[in-house]
Amino acid sequence: MSKFLAERHKKLTPYTPGEQPRDMKYIKLNTNESPFPPSDVAIEKASEAAKRLMLYSDPEAKELTSLMAKTLGVKPENVLMTNGSDEILNFAFMAFCDERGTAFPDITYGFYPVFAEINSLPYTEIPLTEDFRINPADYFGIGKTIFIANPNAPTGIPLSLSEIEEILKRNPENVVVIDEAYVDFGGESAVSLIGKYKNLLVTQTFSKSRSMAGARLGMGIASEEIITDLRMMKYSTNPYNVNSMTMAAGIGVLQDPEYTAKNCKTVMENREFTRIELENLGFCVLPSAANFLFAKTEKKSGEEIYKALKARGILVRHFKKERIKDFCRITVGRKEDMEALIAALSEIIKD
Ligand SMILES: *Cc1c(COP(=O)(O)O)cnc(C)c1O
């Protein structure tokens, strides 16, 4: 730390991304990426766009925004495209949170507390229930801006649309952000509610179901008024937030919806296969509607499992946090990757 760092940042703990090691080839089940390459249409569009990289990208992302809106069944005025969904989440913290506070579960996406801290905002962490669920009633009328990942991470457990709706109804004076990074793997999207609830902001991403984590593309979907506020954050920080290759690739992804749908279906099938195999090995597995499983065993600690798998060339994610330190989060990949995982785990729990 230099002596120049502003006082307000001296206690900041930045987000810790999952490992992206380059030392050897691992089976990567640690950062919830897609195991499948992007759509060929996306790759082709991106390489075409590379030829025009001397120009700034379209700050309005017009073509991509209208195609996205059409895909979601909303108006372009209801959509703001961003540099990953992390950027729209940061915009939401900047735009809608103040000294009245912000609330999110104690076990959820690790970036929420970081966004609160960098924006010098007070926040409350609401404990999940004993069985790692979000209790909607804990969020009724709390007078704070609310962030909920649905399905939640790293548990994978979803809330139903009627539970989300109840939270929206009981907080009419506060924005409720529903982070749908994993919604395409079996969750229920709240996008259908944006016309009815002026306090709803849904965020989604191209990083998981759409195989574009490296391109950085995400979005917010909300009432026109909320999108106007978020657009103000964008034009006050980074007007060209989505680069032109990513924009073109995003259009390609949306022009090839069958490919995304097929990959999501495969991931969901492989998730069920893996869940059953893990349970056969005696693991306790939380009920996941995402592209990962959160699992623990009595035979080894979460850290031991993580280390033993890494030694066998398989990466999973382990969190040192007290309530969840027995668990590992396992991204669901290709069938052969999951078979390799199960084979490795059956050896590991033997010795
Ligand atoms: C992966 C993830 C994101 C962020 O994804 P981007 O790559 O920034 O789009 C947001 N929320 C949750 C819960 C995630 O797991």
Overall pLDDT metric: 97
Largest sheet: 7 strands, mixed
Order of helices and strands: EHHEHEHEEHEEEHHHEEHEEH
Q: Give the distinct bound molecules.
A: pyridoxal-5'-phosphate
Silhouette: globular
Strand sequence of the main sheet, in spatial order? 2-8-7-6-5-3-4
Strand content: 5-15%
Class by SSE composition: alpha/beta
Q: Note the gap between the termini.
A: 44 Å
**Low-confidence segments:** none
State the helix count.
10
> What gyration radius follows from the Cα positions, in whole Å?
20 Å
Describe this structure in words.
The structure is a single chain. The chain is an alpha/beta fold. 36% of the residues lie in helices and 13% in strands. The strands form three sheets. Strands 2-8-7-6-5-3-4 form a seven-stranded mixed beta sheet, with helices on both faces. The longest helix is centred in the C-terminal third of the chain and has 24 residues, at 257-280. Pyridoxal-5'-phosphate binds next to α3.
Summed up:
With 351 residues, the chain is an alpha/beta fold.
List the helices and strands and how they pair.
Blueprint: E1 27-28, H1 40-50, H2 62-72, E2 79-82, H3 84-96, E3 102-105, H4 111-118, E4 123-126, E5 145-149, H5 161-169, E6 176-179, E7 200-205, E8 218-222, H6 224-235, H7 244-254, H8 257-280, E9 284-285, E10 292-296, H9 302-311, E11 314-315, E12 328-331, H10 335-350
Parallel strand pairs: 1-11, 3-4, 3-5, 5-6, 6-7
Antiparallel strand pairs: 2-8, 7-8, 9-10, 10-12
The structure holds pyridoxal-5'-phosphate (PLP).
Task: Describe the structure using short key phrases.
single chain; 351 residues; alpha/beta; 7-stranded mixed β-sheet; 3-stranded antiparallel β-sheet; 36% helix; 13% strand; globular; binds pyridoxal-5'-phosphate
